[in-house]
Design a protein that fits this description.
about 425 residues; mainly alpha; Growth Hormone, Chain: A; 2 domains; 16 helices; about 80% helix; disordered C terminus; cell membrane; transmembrane transporter activity
């Protein structure tokens, strides 16, 4: 089987997404480091992190509505241009010593709020630049590129650049947003989706936003896949919330080797992203999703059983591979199945519903780790994954295969 030819516009879209992700990976740890240098109050430091986590849940649906209202190519360019301006202003405040915790929190909130529009527009833009049959592979390559930019390049560089100058990571982040805006503008204009002019009550953006939720809720397959994502994110966020403590105390990873341990998960995620298209082509999207959940349950059980850094690292890498495959195939199925004029809103609804359990899982893991130690968190996550897998295998078996046959293209036109 030959690899799909994704074309010039996909390369531009990929480069824009990877550039933005690289900047995010520089800015996020730099914000935390800067907050810690300004205050030792844990509440203030946490407030900066929370300010960047709230917009996807609070404003994600609105971001999808605006992504469907406006020209998506220009929207992506305008949003990244605005984000470049926000980060450049923050870099100026940091360089002149006038940045306080409040300014960091406001910047984090604004950047995340603008990001909801960019994410919805880029999700809806992808089917316009690649053939339908190539969507799993295209999503996988996007996942792979952002994993490399964030895990291998941006995150390790953030601390080094911050040590040179506190303003340096933010200045570079502004440049990456500006580059991403120019790359988005270089995309060829795509025709407006059929039926776009029939959006109900253009004066009510909330009504348009909820149209995406209603469509998602009425589609049995996509809704069940989204609910499975919500359940799996409950477990994933719990593990990630205590991962550093789990690695140091349960797996006995030496502190100096924790970066290498975490890098193994990035390698696993990269391998999964690059193989997502082949899995979809070989088994079909929905059967592959069911298989991925089963494999992740086995990997997470192995992680809970492990008491050695190598065994735990391999299990975590396998689990991360399944996560990127799931994200790639889940996105591709929605992009193929949802009407083009609703893609931004339905994609935003998928993300909001799918991420709703993440803060709950993190909080529960924190309380459980305090009360019982972090080792039981691994077993609890494996148990949740087993329940999600059992439910998904049951509800996606019949209706899923029929729906996929209905929407699966015969091949490239």
């Amino acid at each position: 089987m030959t690899a799909p030819v994704l074309g010039r516009d996909f390369r531009l879209l990929w480069a824009a997404a990877v550039s933005s992700r690289f900047g995010d990976a520089l800015r996020t740890p730099a914000l935390a480091l800067l907050a810690a240098t300004l205050t030792r109050d844990p509440r203030a430091v946490a407030a900066v992190t929370v300010a960047g986590q709230l917009p996807p849940l609070l404003l994600g649906l609105l971001g999808g509505a605006y992504a469907d209202r406006w020209d998506r190519r220009r929207t992506m360019a305008a949003v990244d241009g605005l984000r470049a301006g926000v980060v450049a202003a923050l870099a100026g405040l940091v360089a002149t010593g006038r940045a306080g915790v409040a300014a960091l929190a406001v910047a984090a909130f604004l950047l995340a709020a603008l990001g909801t529009v960019f994410d919805a527009a880029s999700f809806a833009m992808l089917p316009a630049v690649v053939p339908s049959a190539a969507l799993p592979a295209a999503n996988g390559r996007l996942q792979a590129g952002t994993a490399v930019a964030g895990g291998f390049l941006g995150a390790p560089l953030a601390g080094l650049l911050f040590a040179i100058s506190a303003a340096f990571p933010f200045t570079l982040d502004a440049l990456t947003f500006a580059a991403a805006a120019l790359l988005a503008l270089a995309l060829r204009p795509s025709p407006r989706p059929a039926g776009h002019h029939r959006a109900p009550n253009r004066g009510s953006v909330w009504r348009e936003a909820w149209a995406g939720v209603r469509w998602l809720r009425r589609d049995p397959v996509l809704w069940r896949v989204t609910v499975a994502t919500t359940g799996s994110n409950l477990a994933i966020s719990g593990v990630m919330a205590v991962l550093v403590l789990y690695a140091l105390t349960v797996l006995r990873v030496p502190p100096a080797a924790y970066g290498l341990f975490a890098a193994g998960a990035v390698v696993g995620g990269l391998a999964g992203a690059l193989g997502a298209g082949r899995l979809a082509a070989r088994f079909g999207t929905l059967p592959a999703l069911r298989g991925v959940l089963l494999g992740q349950t086995v990997a997470l059980t192995g992680f809970a059983l492990a008491r050695h850094p190598l065994a735990g690292g391999v299990a975590l890498a396998c689990f991360a591979a399944g996560t990127t495959v799931w994200n790639s195939l889940w996105s591709a199925y929605g992009q193929r199945h949802v009407p083009p004029e609703l893609l931004g809103r339905v994609g935003a609804a998928q993300r909001v519903v799918g991420l709703a359990s993440a803060p709950v899982g993190a909080a529960l893991a924190g309380f459980a780790g305090e009360a019982y130690g972090v080792a039981p968190v691994g077993w609890a996550a494996a148990g949740i994954f087993a329940l999600v897998t059992g439910g998904a295998w049951r509800v996606l078996r019949g209706t899923g295969s029929r729906a996929e046959r209905r929407t699966e293209p015969a091949g490239r036109p």
